[in-house]
């Protein structure tokens, strides 16, 4: 098993923690020198804060861990392609590489809708690797939203 797969499996574990809380199951870890220095999962619903995406929380934790906002030499592993907000945080924190599982056709900014991470107009570009354990990452999200719709439908039926 290569390192990208190994670390993505750890990000999936984080995503499952989010799902247990009723959060959208997205997980992230940050690795430096083959050591996991931060891990996080979505907490937007729990915290009611829009910036509580897994990537942003992991970036904050990693910065605290190394004592710098510059996360040079770090790789971010995330189960879903980063959105524009997270892509901005990745650029601003100088993360060297991003590895993601599933593409995001609604908000993906690491190659799907646009690629902010490799835009030459910014003063920092990030290497991007996509599709690592893509099916497993995508299935987590598909299953979560299917269950959410079923619960919503059941509640509507009960109220009729």
Features:
MafB19-deam, 5-stranded mixed β-sheet, 160 residues, single chain, alpha/beta, Cytidine Deaminase, domain 2, tRNA-specific adenosine-34 deaminase activity, hydrolase
Written description of the protein model:
The longest helix has 26 residues, at 134-159. 44% of the residues lie in helices and 18% in strands. The protein is α/β, with parallel strands linked by helices. The chain has a single domain (3-154), classed as Cytidine Deaminase, domain 2 (3-Layer(aba) Sandwich), CATH 3.40.140.10. It has helices at residues 3-20, 44-47, 54-66, 84-93, 134-159, and strands at 27-32, 35-41, 74-80, 97-102, 127-129.
Mean pLDDT: 96
Helix content: 40-55%
CA-atom Rg in angstroms: 16 Å
Encode the helix/strand succession as letters.
HEEHHEHEEH
Q: Outline the biggest β-sheet.
A: 5 strands, mixed
Strand order of the largest sheet: 2-1-3-4-5
Taken together, the total number of domains comes to 1
Top CATH class: Alpha Beta
Tell me the strand percentage band. Answer: 15-25%
Broad shape: globular
* Number of E strands: 5
CATH evolutionary superfamily = Cytidine Deaminase, domain 2
Q: What is the rounded distance between the termini? A: 52 Å
> From the 3D coordinates, which CATH architecture would you assign?
3-Layer(aba) Sandwich
Assembly type: single chain
Structural class: alpha/beta
Unreliable stretches (pLDDT < 50, length at least 5) are: none
Count of helices?
5
Q: Could you say what the CATH topology is called?
A: Cytidine Deaminase, domain 2
């Amino acid at each position: 098993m290569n390192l990208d797969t190994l670390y993505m499996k750890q990000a999936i574990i984080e995503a499952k923690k989010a799902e247990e809380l009723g959060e959208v199951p997205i997980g992230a870890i940050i690795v430096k020198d083959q050591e996991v220095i931060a891990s996080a999962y979505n907490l937007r619903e729990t915290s009611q804060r829009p910036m509580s995406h897994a990537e942003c929380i992991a970036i904050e934790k990693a910065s605290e861990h190394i004592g710098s906002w510059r996360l040079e030499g770090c790789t971010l592993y995330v189960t879903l392609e980063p959105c524009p907000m997270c892509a901005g945080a990745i650029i601003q924190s100088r993360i060297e590489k991003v590895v993601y599982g599933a593409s995001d056709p609604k908000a993906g900014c690491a190659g799907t809708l646009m690629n902010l991470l490799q835009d030459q107009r910014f003063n920092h570009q990030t290497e991007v690797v996509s599709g690592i354990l893509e099916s497993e990452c995508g299935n987590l999200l598909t299953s979560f939203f299917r269950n959410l719709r079923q619960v919503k439908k059941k509640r509507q039926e009960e109220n009729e």
